[in-house]
Amino acid sequence: MSRRAVVIGAGLAGMLAAAALSDAGADEVIVLDRDELPDGPEHRRGLPQGHHAHLLMPGGLDAMEELLPGVDPRGRLLAAGAHEVSLSSGMLALTSEGWLRRWRRAGPAMLTCTRPLLDWVIRTAVLEHAPVEIRRAAVTGLTGSAGRVRGVRVAARGGENRHAIRDEELDADLVVDASGRGTRVVTWLDGLGLDGIRERTVDSGLVNATRLYRVPEGAERFPLTIVQANPFVSRPARSAMVMPVEGGRWLVSCGGSRGGEPPADPEGFLRYMLDLPDPIVGRLVSGAEPLTDIHLSRSTSNVRRYLEKAPRWPDGFVALGDALATFNPAYGHGMSVAAFGARVLGRELNGVAGDLGAPGLARRVQRGAARVAEAAWSMAVSQDVLYPGVRGGAPTAADRVVSAYTRRVTRAATGSYPAASALWGVTGLRTSPARVFHPATVLATLAGSPLPPSTRPPMTPDEQKVLERLDRTGV
């Protein structure tokens, strides 16, 4: 008997899920997407955050390599122009507690590139190595019952009136919703009689403003530079980052929460960066050639759908990636969590010898995906609720205790390698947040930084010369 899986959404979460399904032995994997997918690393409508900064954290890259054995996603991305950035030595990062030092010891590394490049490289790799078919179609609902999903309804054109749209059904043994921020999963489940799904939205009102620049000659090796938002000063979040991407370009992104939003005009954009606690990002880009207009995005809220807590869950259906949990993109965790969810799917399928319709499989996958999303959700929400004007939450007493301790860990990490290592593990999604409560980390935190705080970015002499040469601001 043929075993068919249908995946809704051809973004990163959908293609990684398709890879997991194919590797587990599905005879047919069909990916449905309402967009016309580009033939190369180009932007598409269905990705509202596509123009802005995306970081592929070490933990997410680990999951991708497990999902794509023999494909070498890291090598493919680097060959396509992505950059590898060491968390220990490859960044200039100003935290709420001061500048992080750069260590000579090797540390975990993340990859930086534009989101269209990453999506295109992964999609191409999956299609080359797995029998996956992509169809352009808009899914309008699920078929089946509250006990088992049997497939999807899709909107199709044709018949006597070629402009008319009608619903057609596509049967499947397993349906995966990876349709992203715009998912209609709660409505679809309600249509099967599964109502009462709890949702939570925490919205800091963050606005992202992003522009691409040509990397100036001589600045090709300048490190990724970030001035992070400070949630502890009772003011709107304000941040900026310049990171290397493919094609000899810098992607420069500013973010501001409600009341501190960045502007879209070039002069205001530069002034915004210069007015941050350190003007380094503005000074850098003041001497660089802009290549694009400034793109704004307000699709930044944290949204959690507690699907795993539903009293009943149908066999034959799971939701992964942003369809399950959507994060403020400032924290750079969304792509990694999508990879974690697909990895859960693959491991659970291997446990049932690839039986897509195995009783209880879908519920186990849904609960496992929720567990791996929870750490990133907690990190994002516990910080966002501290900003003025946030909608959907307020800090609890427990939040304030955890925030105070996390702040102390960060302060120690400005000059303590053990504390910094714990911070890299958690923010890089290689270890759980419990790592900061490990005895070694607690001791390092209580001891504090053995080095005096750095009041200036920890640049090498050559990097200092690059900054001075590019600076057109006189700041």
Automatic annotation (TrEMBL):
Residues in the signal sequence: 1-19
SUPFAM superfamilies: FAD/NAD(P)-binding domain
Residue ranges, compositional bias (Basic and acidic residues): 462-475
Highest taxon listed in the record's lineage: Bacteria
Residue stretches making up the FAD-binding domain: 5-376
A Pfam family of this chain: FAD_binding_3
Name this polypeptide is given: FAD-dependent oxidoreductase
Organism from which the protein derives: Streptomyces incanus
